Amino acid sequence: MALSDLVTTCLSQPVHYVICKLGFEKKDTYDINNILSGNGEVCWQAVTEHVCYLESDQSVNYIKSIRSLGPVCESVNLHFKSLTKEQFAIQYASWFHWTNCTEVFLEVFDVLQYTEATKVALGLMKLTSCLERALGDVYLLKGTDCPFLLRDLLASEQLADVFGQAVMNVLRVFIGSPYGLNLRNVLWHGFASPQEIPAKYCAMLLFLTAGLGQLLETYLLQTKCVLVHRPYVIFVSLEELDVFPDLNNETLSIAEELVKLSSFVLKTMLPFWIAALTAFKQSRYADSVILLLPQLEVGLRLLFTTTNKCPNRLLTAESSALYTTFDEMLAKHLDNEDVNQLPVVLEEPAMASDFLWDFLNHQEGPRVRDRLSHGEINLETFPREVANQIVGFAITLLCRFSDKDMSSLQEHMLIKPLMKCASCYQSRFHPISQLKKQVLECMKSIHLWPELPTVPEEQVQMMKRLEGNGEANTLILMTSEIISQLQQYMPQNCCSSDDPVQSVLSERLLMELCATRICTLYSPRPVLEVVVVLRKISTQCHQVSQQVTASAGLRYRQWVNKTLRSRQRHNYLRMLNSITFLSPVLRLILLLITLELVSVHSVCKKNPFDYQQYLKFLKSVLQYAENLVTYTSPEKNKWDETMELTNKALLKIRKISDRKLMLMHLA
């Protein structure tokens, strides 16, 4: 029997007791009128009286508080069940406006009427997400940088000033503290199965959120402050997230069969998987992803704990220890410095790990889990494109960890394309991948220079005759010499003897080099340090290109309209002359950046001394690029100085190349 069939809970015994039993020990019937006034307002003093404190330091005694609040939660749950949706909306809807998510809270009320465990758990995850975001908005009434972690937010002086410390302590009994029920974390990290979350706790948090709205209204009236809601994060460039083909209902039906048979799925969690696939079919894309992400985490945790022989880490940790979460499971080493065996088990470690890092962790990626769990995304407009990728990835894991007798499903014509896409996946949001993207965007910008409007060629030639063109020709010649030195590191037949500059420094060549597969997983720190500098160089080069493009367009219009003074006309012609050498020089720098990516891993590992020397050289190139931005800005327009600056930079690049200290030589 598979381990996924044997596991009955992911909650450790103490945590299971706290969540599933402690709040049911007191059998008292609590009168709802004790905490609810005649006009529907929460009597906070009556609620806070149930929070108990330790005699030693007056900190919250979470065990006694949960036990004491148990009957109160049950009373609230029964009260909500006695209301129709219309009655609830009339009495409470206005108190949820401060969250900017009123519909979500009304939806949670609907869920509580039927007590379907999976829907209650989903409602609680959405409630805690929206509540955290709203509390962050309140925090910003008095503070600046909102804490990232919910526990730090709830423990902040800023929220205590608005709502009162006693009120915040009530919230911390339910969410945000590892010593309390900690409902948000055990759900979002995939530790709790649907039947392990009592509906009465969801009802109580709904009740408390309305009560917070009442307190906040009073505070805003007294202080004359205005609550401002931070804008939602919007996923941009959705095409960059396009990995798997669009999932249709037939594919999802196959996935439902795989879910029931895959060893990746804990049987206690099966309702979450079915609900996630159903939500996708019903175009409830945020719900689908919210349900699925914790299940990906618990499935990978099962593999992680099995392959690394630490079965105890499958369970939720105690308050004194850390959860085994995505961050640790994706790391190269375990806490004891042993090599993490999970990537080996995944067979396609780069694929699975790169995908997870891209969609969940990399700072420039969508960071889907963080943004959803912290309430940063509008749930109603969550894009299908993003959900499609998460569900598609989940299906590939279901296939990967299905029994051999499931080959008919694994080989299905709708499943095979998913597996092929997964096996070919390359990181898109790792700094190295982002650098490739930057280089190509910059090259595309420079590639448009020949199309810039310009004065008649005879005018430029006259300028060259009057002021000489020797220095520009020298720079172009020096660029050609450096290209000749680099040719051995480039694809064959990429250089034309007639025009090495134009044939080598082409957009096509850079695209070919950037298509080279580079292992980004577990990049060592020295590699990332180099990449940081290379990205800064690329950014500065792109800014130079944009400035030249803007200046050329402006000056041409002024030339045609005859609004340039004599000095400005000469300066404009100098700029056009400078473009002849700046274009190949900038393209050379982009070529150097791209070539470094091919060898940077091996160099940083084998030649730490030479690596430090090269890093120093790169920083000097960055200084050149930064100065170039200044000289080519509309405010400066120092084109003669640009020529002198470029000459010094090329001499340094050639010198370094001659000494074979380039990273390509070191590899």
What does this entry look like structurally?
InterPro entries: DUF4209, ERMARD. It is a single chain. With 667 residues, this protein is mainly alpha-helical. The protein has three domains: 11-223, no CATH class; 238-424, no CATH class; 431-666, no CATH class. It is built from 32 helices and no strands.
Write the topology of this structure:
Layout: H1 3-6, H2 13-20, H3 44-48, H4 62-81, H5 85-92, H6 102-114, H7 117-139, H8 150-154, H9 157-163, H10 165-174, H11 183-188, H12 199-223, H13 249-261, H14 270-281, H15 285-307, H16 326-329, H17 342-345, H18 349-361, H19 368-373, H20 384-400, H21 407-410, H22 416-423, H23 431-447, H24 457-467, H25 470-486, H26 500-504, H27 507-514, H28 525-560, H29 566-606, H30 608-631, H31 639-658, H32 663-666
Helix pairs in contact: 4-12, 6-7, 6-12, 7-12, 9-10, 13-14, 14-15, 15-20, 23-27, 23-28, 23-29, 24-29, 25-29, 25-31, 28-29, 28-30, 29-31, 30-31
